[in-house]
């Protein structure tokens, strides 16, 4: 409610003690208010001496709302900020599984899987991204890149060509296509 909104406003103004006071009030008024848990955890995480306290709030949010994609996403962001990328990517994937229609979460899961050398799983999520936003050149470029890494040259070339059709002068896509050693036009 109102305490949570006030807490967010004070946080945006960098008035941390006031922000904390209102976030605590929000949590006392509504102990199961998920957004307040996430805001408070995010706010505490800004202070390196309070990261373990911040993590407790993210974990509470997970317990209260285990099927809320945004909770998994925010916890993944926190874990990434703590350089705990191995744990973070699992929460990114869980967020995408819980919200497979959310393009941003799907792309975050795919990119995270790619970085962890989980290429086949990354391909699945990049395909989902293309399905969600077929007019988004970047989605086709990313799918092409993972197919390229998987050694599926013709499929990669096809994805790159579709990306170029949507965004003809994209240097990343042109460069990737050149690395494949295939012509830009089939």
TrEMBL record:
Keyword Transmembrane assigned to the entry: answer is no
Q: Which SMART domains match?
A: TPR
Q: Keywords on this record?
A: TPR repeat
- Identify a single GO molecular function assigned to this protein: mannosyltransferase activity
Concerning InterPro entries, the annotation shows:
TMTC_O-mannosyltransferase, TPR-like_helical_dom_sf, TPR_rpt
* Entries under PROSITE patterns matching the protein: TPR, TPR_REGION
Q: Name one GO biological process term.
A: protein O-linked glycosylation via mannose
Quote a single Gene Ontology cellular component term.
Answer: endoplasmic reticulum membrane
Where are TPR repeat segments found? Answer: 137-170
Please give the name of this protein. Answer: TPR_REGION domain-containing protein
Question: What species does this protein belong to?
Answer: Anopheles epiroticus
